């Protein structure tokens, strides 16, 4: 347990704006972030890299021998402070493999789905050093679930819950300050695949799932008015990418292309023929993937400015939700390419960050 002074110091560190890389990254460049605290490469593959809004903190799953992760049945979860280089394990995340990790925008909270056979959504507070299970409070249900989204300050959590073998029959939003769970969508609507919550928790976008298919309708629920709207009408089967933190824009994929739906005007714009795989929390930037082969390592990632249409190359590989920082300055991605940084000889996939400017 940390003493009061140590916790206070860490709390202060969390809210400091990360400018170290911004000061030196005047031109596009790529760095590897899945390393030890000394910067040495890892013996073991790493996947699912995500970033805080300012890029200071990166979380990723790994099988690295250096962290003892190779002894786990699946992978473990690490958080790197890119200002200091320190890499720390997230307690209780052993066996982590159900869904990508989630960082709150300020980097203080780490959301993850733990367990090897039974998925359990949890949120780890880096300041207090404690984890909290996020499931409905009921004595008559053996709940399991998946964690999908945290608001910028970690005050709201969007997660799926259900019973085995259907862990995402229901969608809830947890208000962490009050400790309450609001049911957004129940079993009658079908299983849920993914969800994204706005900064103030008033809106949550979610994707339904049809049997044997990960593509279905995308809806947005206004928790204040109780209104639910479908945002992919006329687009066919769709996939949710991100709800903007303002709760106004929804980034989604349909028919292999990227779209943005404006909830205020009701208009939907087609922005790219390639599918988006991640977007910034403000909903302005998206990473789109041009598929070139059967392997994700052959895919090409591009950062797309959804307002201007400007495109910036990122690199070969794949990205997950939460991989783009504010203002699109940095993008985290997984790649097995060996020519992105010098002395990449581990023969495993790593997490890289592309500085776009």
Tell me what you see in this structure.
This protein has helices at residues 4-15, 20-24, and strands spanning 29-32, 46-51, 57-62, 76-81, 87-89, 102-103, 109-114, 120-125, 130-133, 144-150, 156-163, 166-175, 180-185, 192-197, 203-208, 218-222, 228-230, 238-243, 249-254, 257-262, 268-272, 276-279, 285-290, 300-305, 311-316, 330-335, 350-355. The protein has a four-stranded antiparallel sheet, with no helix packed on it. A four-stranded antiparallel sheet has the order 6-7-8-9, with no helix packed on it. Strands 10-11-12-13 form a four-stranded antiparallel sheet, with no helix packed on it. Mean pLDDT is 88; it is low at 1-25. The chain is mostly beta strands. Helices cover 5% and strands 42% of the residues.
In short:
With 357 residues, the chain is mainly beta. The chain has helices at residues 4-15, 20-24, and strands at 29-32, 46-51, 57-62, 76-81, 87-89, 102-103, 109-114, 120-125, 130-133, 144-150, 156-163, 166-175, 180-185, 192-197, 203-208, 218-222, 228-230, 238-243, 249-254, 257-262, 268-272, 276-279, 285-290, 300-305, 311-316, 330-335, 350-355.
What layout of secondary structure does this protein have?
Blueprint: H1 4-15, H2 20-24, E1 29-32, E2 46-51, E3 57-62, E4 76-81, E5 87-89, E6 102-103, E7 109-114, E8 120-125, E9 130-133, E10 144-150, E11 156-163, E12 166-175, E13 180-185, E14 192-197, E15 203-208, E16 218-222, E17 228-230, E18 238-243, E19 249-254, E20 257-262, E21 268-272, E22 276-279, E23 285-290, E24 300-305, E25 311-316, E26 330-335, E27 350-355
Antiparallel strand pairs: 1-27, 2-3, 3-4, 4-5, 6-7, 7-8, 8-9, 10-11, 11-12, 12-13, 14-15, 15-16, 16-17, 18-19, 19-20, 20-21, 22-23, 23-24, 24-25, 26-27
